[in-house]
Every structure is written in structure tokens, then in C-alpha cells.
Queue: 4 jobs
Job 1
Amino acid sequence: MHKRKGAVPLQYAIHIVLALVVLLPLAFALVSSLRPLDEIFRYMSPVSWRTFIPTHITFDAYVSLFTERGFGRIFFNTFYVSAVNVLVGLIVASMAAFGFVYFSFRGQSFLFLLVLLTFMIPFEVIAIPLYSLVDKLGWIDTYSGIIIPGIANGLVIFLYRQFFLDLPKALIESARIDGASWFKIYAGIIMPLCKPVSVSAGLLIFIHQWESFMWPLIATRSKDYKVIQVALSDFITEFATYWNEMFAGAVIAVIIPVIVLLPLQRYFVNGIANTGSKE
């Protein structure tokens, strides 16, 4: 009992240290975004209360983002690309998983193995051939070029497949006996039961797309289709680095996924936890 009582304060201390490691850089970024450019690193050495509490608060960096940097368009592009990826990606992934679970066809195991490989292979390996394909289709510097390559997500297909395997087979058999079509079974019976895994998969797609940098950088050339992660690199120029605007953009880029994740975290955890490994 004494060992257990002694372990509790130690666990709290470890959690506090880990929280500080994560939150202090975010706090510094938030504070720096509210400071004039020439004051950002003035109080870095030695570290004092002024390092994390601004003496002169200004919102000029945030105003500049939307009035001079065009962050309104950038924010719309990022949210639009992420939202379309979520909506279409969930439909494609769930239908693919439905086919893997409820249909038998030649080469099924091999095809599912290829699906698993898609989220195990680093994106850098396929970046060049993917760019060549998208370029031939005429999708470079278009929404289609950014969105379509990310719609089919192997990890999301895997999550749906594992969830479908845990559903009772008698439910499907009863529906088939009653004359229900496969589409009605999918849309009217299976998908309404998939709320936890759909929320988890949707959040995975949204966060992955929101934080995507390499592919939007490769697939776009003009400012009309620039997303927020690519736009953050524009604050480093040959002659100066606009740290306050960069921190302001980074704060916005972090806050949006947090706002989306926090209300849905219960479903997210349940969806991941309840996705078993049944074969």
C-alpha cells in the first residue's frame, strides 16, 4: 500500500512534466503572436515571467494574416480540402471495407494486403510517380489534384473492415432473407451502426489532411490553391523572418483541429478501442 501511495505523486509529477514539454512551446507561440516583431526574442535570455507574459499586446500579426497574406482564402482552401476528403473518403473506405467483409472474390486476400501496404509505405516513395500521374490528368494546381489522391485511405479501410467483422452475421442474413438489396443493407443497416468508427476515421482523415504539407506543396503552384501548412513557409524570406505572423498562423493551424477533436474525443477513443482484430 505504501508503494502504491508513493507511486501516485510520481505519476502526477511525470504527467506535469510531460504536459509542460507539450504546452510550453505552444504557450510561447501564442504569446509571441501577440507581440511586436522586435520583442519576440528580447526576453528569451534569461528566461523570466516576461518570456511567457507579453508586456505589450497587439493583434497586428493576426490582422496582417487576413488583410495582407490572404489567409482567408488559405483557410477556406484547407478546410474545403479537408472536409471533402472526410466526406468522400468515408464513403469510399466504408464501401471498400463492406466489399472485403461481405463478398468473396478471387484475389481478395492479396488485394487487402495491398490496402495494408498503402499506409505502411512512406509517402515520399510514391510522391514522384503520383505527381507524374496527376500531371498527365491535368490536375496540377487544382482542387482535384489535392483531394483525389488522398481519398482512398488504407488505414480507414482497415478500421471499417475490423468493425464490420464484429457485427453479427445474422443481421445481414435476416436482411437478405427479407429481400433487402446490398445497397440497402449498407446504407440502411450497417452504416447507422458505425457512428464510433466513422467519427474516428473522419477525425483521422481530417487531421491528416489539415496537417498535410508535402503533397499540397508539390501539387499546387499558384496562391489560389495554397493550404495553411504550405503558407506557413512563406514567412521565411531571404531578408527577414516574420516570426510574429508565423506564430499567429501556427496558432490558427493548431486551434482548428483541437476545436474539432475535443467535442468528439469520446467517440474517437471508443471507435479506436472497439475496432478489434477479429479475423
Job 2
Amino acid sequence: MPKINLSNITLNYEDKGKGKVLLFLHGLGSSIKDWDFQVPFFSKNFRVITVDLRGHGDSVMKDNNFGVDYMVNDIKEFLDALKIDNVTFIGFSMGGAIAFQFAYSYPEKIDKMVIVNSGPDFNNMGEIGEDLLKKRTEFLKTKGLDPLAKEIAFNMFPESHQLNLRNEFEARCKKNNFDNYYQSFVTLMDWGMGNKIKDIEAETLVVASDMDYTPVAFKEEYVKNLQKASLKVIKNSRHGVVLDQPDAFNKALFTFLSHE
């Protein structure tokens, strides 16, 4: 896979297909492998780009800065380097935060936006967010990343027929540098859009799993604050919907991308 040298990072990415550009942004502790079931499907009709975000995968940082704003800057410089002026973002979990922030900061570059099991305010999720921040930081400090990777993988893919997905995600998460993962997590949990979400004009599809960490009602509430947004709920799915229900997800995404 190619790599591109930018001012503060060398980004690892994959670029396949031709047509309108789809940029897929993975979740916390993962990599472009989140999109293994999407790349072959969508690259038949679109130009599909996946990228390892700051502190993740095979991308290499040249500084020690973390947070959504830095990731947005990386992606802006990345798109400029590839001379891409118009793009649809598909952001899963942490990737959704980056998509939200990018759509607000650089609206002229956004065609459409897809938010997958994510939200616009990780710093204002109430008891769910506070509990997640407290438990995960304590877990990391006392037990380390490997046991956390095992627990997250099981929570995402607990069923017997999901064993391969579980093992692959656990292995992927364990590859992370501890400090990179920790800093990515705590800075993500400190990020939020607030009222700025109302200024986002891009047509948006929000995809929610019926068994995600945050309830469907959480997504329904913020969808109301977006100018042009619709919600699609995927049944029998947990947080990793792009992996545990790829056919249903791909169908919903393709339908959204195909209408003008």
C-alpha cells in the first residue's frame, strides 16, 4: 500500500477504483482493515480511499500531538496532496468525529457525509460517556492494552460465528502503541461540536446499530439538529456494524450514495 509524506505525518493509505471519491475513516484502535468488506464492493463504482489515522496502523507520526483537530488537519493536507476537492466521508466511531469536524471546518470539500455508530459530542454523552472514560482509562492503567483489546473485541463480536472477526479485531487492537492508543482515546473523549452541528449543510446519513454502546435514541436526538440528515437502523448488529452486518450496511450506504 502507498504512503504519503505530509508535514507532520506519513499516512498509510489504499486507493482503489474510479469515480466520485469515498473516504473511509476507521475507529479507535483499529486501521483501514475496518473496511475490508466495503472496499471490494464500493470500488466497483467509486474511487475508494482508506487511510490509517494518526497514531494508528502503519501511519507514522512526526510529532507527538493527538486529538480530532490534528486528525482533521492530516486529512485536509492528505486530500490537498492528492488534489481531491470533493469527497464523501464515511466515518465509523472515532472516524465519525473526524467527519463531523471536517464537515464544519471545510464544508466546501464535502459532498455527502455518513456517520456510523458515532456522535458529534464525545464530551457530552452523559453517564454513558463518563462511565466509559473512567472505566477505560482505569483499565488501561491497571491492566494494559492487551486485556482491553480482548474485552473490546468480545463485546463487539460475542457470538460463536463471529470468532474470526473477534480474533482479527483483537489482534489489530493489540498492535497499537500504548501511549498512542491512550492519548487518542482521552483526546477523543474531550472532543465535541456543541451547537456547531447545526451549521453543517452536507447531506448526511447516520447509521445506527440496534445494539450499539449508545442507544438509537442518542442518534435520533442529534439527527434532529442536522440540516439534511436521515437515520438508518441496522438490526442484529453491535458497534462494529461495518464488519458484523456488512451486507445490510453496504446496501444502506449504496442507496444513500446513489440518489441525487
Job 3
Amino acid sequence: MPRPLSTAAWLPAAAFVLIWSTGFIVGKAIVPLADTSLFLLGRFAVAGLMFVGWSLAARAAWPPLREAPRHLLAGALMQGLYLCAGYGAIAQGLPPAIMALLGALQPLLTALLAIPLLKELPSRRTWQGLALGALGVALVVAPAMQAGLDGAARPLSPWIVLLGVLAIVSITMGTLLQKTAIATCDLRASSAWQSLGALLVAAAMVAVQAAGAPLHWHGAPALWAGLAWAAVGLSGAGTWLLVSLVRRGQAANAAALMFLAPPLAALQAWLLFGERLSGVQALGMAVAGAGVWLCQTRGRMRHAEAR
């Protein structure tokens, strides 16, 4: 029989999923109000200042400067390149549903790469959960994906799809880096460095875009509210919870929680924007939930050396 996690163990996972799923809503809301790279620059800057203030107030131990590049790289991959490439792909015409479907590959890729890099070998139960999770996400985004392809003004460029794939590879590698030497550093101080790494990527994107065309920023209340939530909620609490889960458990099992983000985002879009929620999507939510449950219960991971 599977051993379910205790309520206390589920709370951080549930909080992470609820917070992470709002990223789809924030992304949709800010597109007409600001250039995404400029928005991300502000998001990472606010999050970085928050973590610096928290670290100083708590007198957290900072890593030696010689180790700073590792933290910068982790943040650049896990947040900076992931979000800049993902938002950039959508801005260039990649339907958000396809981006969400590509995102469903991230837990699978994490599980595969964790075998040679972290010596973590998923159990059969975990592989079954990962497969169910990916199938559930595919069912949830299928209607929107079909609508996006049917309504596309031009055929989808493979380069745009590759940009979306780059985003997924980036967050996967950034997630795996959290299990390496930087895992011994205080998470608050590490998060401050990682926010700076993400900020540097966004700053480079802003510089490139500003050289080609003027950037727009319409300071509407909705934009400022979205920026506050994206910085404090997503880059702050959401990323902190994800890294905590990765550090305490197994990379693939923590990543599997992301399967629940698209279903919850579809539910939020139905509640907030009145978007249609079909029976197929409801089935996909149930399937994704079953997959995550499998990943979070008994037989989650074992070390490759044990075989």
C-alpha cells in the first residue's frame, strides 16, 4: 500500500502549486500593458531586494564570493532564461497552450537527467506518475492548443518552438543545480544571488530589445499589482518553495508538482475570465492529479548505486 505524505508535508507542496499556477494568469494580464522583458527585469529586481533584506535581517550566512557564480548560474537558468525564453516564444506567436504542453516535459526531463547527474533513479511508480501527469496536462491544454493552431495567422516556425524548448531545458538544469554544492548555502542568501542572476538575463534582453524598438510600460494599477505579485508571490514565495522541496526531497518528485499548474490555471481562467472548461479538460485535471499523487507517495526514488 502507498504511504501518503503527512498533512504537514503536503502543505508546502500545495502552496507551491497554488502560487505557481498563477503565473499563467499574470502572464496573460500583463502582455498588453508592458514589454515582458521589462516586466521581468522589475520582477527580479524586487524579488532580489526582498531576499537581500530578509537575509540581512535574519543575519543569514552568505556564501563565499568564489561560489557566487554557481548561484548566479542557477538563477539565470531557473528563472531568467526560462521566463525570458518562454515569454519571448509566446510573444513571437507560440500559443500559450503549446508552451504549457512543453512545460509538461520538464518533470520528465528532470527525472531523466537526474539519473546521470544526481544518481537518482525513479521507481516504476514514479515513472507511472510522470506519464499520467504529462497525459493530464496534454488533455487540459488540448482545446486551447487546437484553437491556437487553427487561429494562427501563419505556420508555426520551428525556431519559435525551439525557443520554448530552450525555456524548459533552462528551468530543468536550474532545478538540478539546486541539488549540487549550492544546496548547503542558506536558502535566503542563495535566493538573493539567484535573483541577481535572473536579473542579469532580463537586463540583457531589455538592452537588446531597446536597441531595436522603444519599450512600452503602461503604469496601470493592474500592471503594478501584477508586478507586486510576480515578484513577491512567484519569484519570492513560489521559487523559494520549489527550491526547498527540491533540496529536501528528490528533483523529479518536486518537479512533478508542476503538472498541476496548467490544470489550476485553466480553472482560474474559467473563474476569472469566464473561459470555457470542457469535459476533456476536467478529465485531464483528474489524470494529472492522479499522476502527482503517484509521484508523491511510496516508492518515490532510490539511488542509482543501489542497483
Job 4
Amino acid sequence: MRKVRPARDFRRFVVVGDSCAEGLDDRYPDSEHYRGWADLVATELERRHPGVHYANLAVRGKRLDQIVTEQLPAARPLRPDLVALFGGVNDLLTRGCSAATLHGRVDRAVGGLTEICDTVVVFTVSDISRQSPVLRGLRGRIGLLNGAVRHAANTHGATLVDLASQESVDDLRYFGPDRLHLAAPGHRRVAAQVLTSLGMTADPAWTAPLPGAPVRAGFRSHLQWAWQQAAPVLVSRARNVVVRRQPGDGFAAKRPHLTPVG
């Protein structure tokens, strides 16, 4: 495994990936812009060692093969000291995605990033299939993705943030309305885990249990979610197939240039 560089050396922080790296569903207060775990990490790096520059090249909807061909070439000339990759969920939602395909895409993404930067952070994903009967069909694919991420992290010397073991997946307060993207409390927990993986302490409030009992979905809320959230996504994906529209078309990175955090 590669050694993690001291925090003071993380002067150029670059994030690649999909909507989970972009920051959906964690909006800044009184703003339409998304914050997310990556912005939180960047702000904390800047607080500790002023002068950090940060770019977020992630684009919602992107698969790992798109991340490799579109975002890695954009990340290379930025000469990052720290790179984080959060992606793979959109691959799980693609018809015909096989174990071999997943492993190949993950390996190319992680391996490519470790050629660009010494310190690369990657993530397993939470088992969201536990939240709804509609999602149970994803359980096997989630396991395949997480296995591929662990193998690639070990092979290429990346730093692994293991979200697969998080019990918070059973509490819907950590997730947005679609039960896929994290809400603000979920993003804070992920940011804390990233900082911990890099040898830094995080605000204890970010990982403190939420007050009250966990919120779990009942039968009626499952039906409401399926109608209001799942069905429109399925229709949109079917329409994209018909018109040959690629995931992420029409969207741009929220922070495409390496600019000061402060």
C-alpha cells in the first residue's frame, strides 16, 4: 500500500466521479448549488493549511468508463496531490453490466488515477438494496462493485473508505428523497471518513448519531417512492436508450478548474 502524504502536502485536491461526488442532495443553505462531502473535505483541508486549491470534475449520471475517458484526462494536467473517486452506481443501473465489466472499469479508473497522483481515495457504496423491495435486485451488483473496488484499492495502493459497512443505510434521514443520494447528514459522515482515512480528525458532530429513532420506510412510503422517484428515473433511462443519449449529457462539472478554496 502507498503511504498517505501528510495533510500539509495536499495543496491540490481533485475529485472525479458522478452525482455522489458532485454532492447531490446536499444544497448550500439558501442556494441551488450542491455542497457534498467533497466540498466539506476541501474546506477542512483549507482550514488546516491555508492555500489549498480544489477542483470537482464529477458529473451526475456518468459511468466509470466515461469517468476514465472524460475526467481523468482533465485531472492529469492539474497535477493533484490528492484525488478522490466516487463512482460506479450508474454502472450498476446499466442493463447487462457484468462482473467482468465492473472489475475492468474499476481497475482502469483506480489504476489510471494512481498514475496521476500518489494519494487516491476510493469508496465502496452502501447497500441501498436494504431500503426497499424494489431495490433488492441490486444487492448482487452492489456486492460485485464493492469487491472490485476493494481489489483495485489493494492492487494499486489506493486509500479505501468503506461505506458498505455503514449501518446508517437503514436510516432514511441520511438520504435524499430518491434514497440513492445522500442528504446533508450522510455527506458529513462521508467527509469525516475521508479525513480519518487521511490521518486527520473530523468534527465529532459529523459522525454523532442523529437524535431520535431511525426513520425506516413502510409499505405506503415504498409505494409513494416507487411512483414519485423510481418510475421517472426508469422512464428517463428508457428514453435515453431510444434517442441514444449518454448518461450525463447536458451537465457540466460544478468546479472544473483548480481554484482556491478560501
